[in-house]
Amino acid sequence: MPFLAAKFARKIELSKAAYFGWLHLTYVKPLQDMGIKVLLTVLGDWQNIGVTSMNDTQADQFATILAYAVQKYGLDGIGFDNEYDGSPTTVSGSWGNIITKLRAKMPADKLITVFQWGNYGSSQINATAGAKIDYVYANFGYSTYIGVAGVTKDRFAPLSLNLGSYNSPTA
After folding, report:
1. What are the residues whose beta carbons fall under 8 Å from the beta carbon of 134, sequence distance 6 or more?
2. Counting beta carbons within 10 angstroms of the beta carbon of residue 167, is it exposed (0 to 12), middle (13 to 18) or buried (19 or more)?
3. Phi and psi for 131 in degrees, rounded to 5?
4. What pLDDT digit, counting tens, does each position of 81-115 carry?
5. CB atoms within 10 A of CB 120
6. pTM (2 decimals)?
7. CA 156, CA 101: separation in Å to the nearest integer?
8. Is 144 helix (H, G, I), strand (E, B) or coil?
């Protein structure tokens, strides 16, 4: 099944319902009609708060917002990419807590994915939370190392490409 993770790095104004209806009909639905999964990918973007720095209340609120966005805009799930978190502090288990809360708030057919940038280790995503992730994909390039506890080989993609860095159609 084709898979697409769409990154929306700009701020979204939820009061623009008409715009999002147009966005869904113009971009999301045509891709879904072709069998492509469309996810909202969450990127820290150097905002000094990220998935590794939320307390329990923040994690619950964040998971609620993400689940709402998936439902409201007809998306197929949420992707996490923590490359540019920028958080000055971390809260042990924060990311796993968000994943666990998000899985409980979304229907079972909605996806949760993680871009494996580095080794997260069980201090952030323990095996229980890792088992709730649908897919993890390797840092750009090829790697068979699964750095997220609880993720099995059948839910791990060892190859990912940064399409923005390839300029040859044969690459």
Report:
1. 77, 111, 112, 113, 155
2. exposed
3. -70, -15
4. 887 777 767 888 999 999 999 999 999 999 999 99
5. 21
6. 0.81
7. 22
8. coil
Sheet holding 111-116, edge to edge: 3-7, 37-43, 77-81, 111-116, 135-138, 156-157
Predicted local confidence at residue 66, as pLDDT: 97
Find how far residue 125's CA is from the centre of its chain: 14
What is the rounded CA–CA span in Å between residue 111 and residue 18? 25
On the question of pLDDT at 5 being above 60, the answer is: no
The tokens for 151 are 């993720």
Distance CA 146, CA 162 (A): 19
pLDDT digit string, tens, across residues 15-69: 455 666 667 778 889 999 999 999 999 987 777 778 888 999 999 999 999 999 9
Q: Is 86 in contact with 46 (CB distance < 8 Å)? A: yes
Residue 143: exposed, middle, or buried by beta-carbon count in 10 A (0-12, 13-18, 19+)? middle
Measured CA to CA, the distance from residue 113 to residue 123 in angstroms comes to 18
String of DSSP letters for 59-123: HHHHHHHHHHHHHHTT--EEEEE-TT---S---TTHHHHHHHHHHHHS-TTSEEEEEE-S---TT
Task: State the residue for tokens 């113009």.
Answer: 26
Amino acid at 165: S
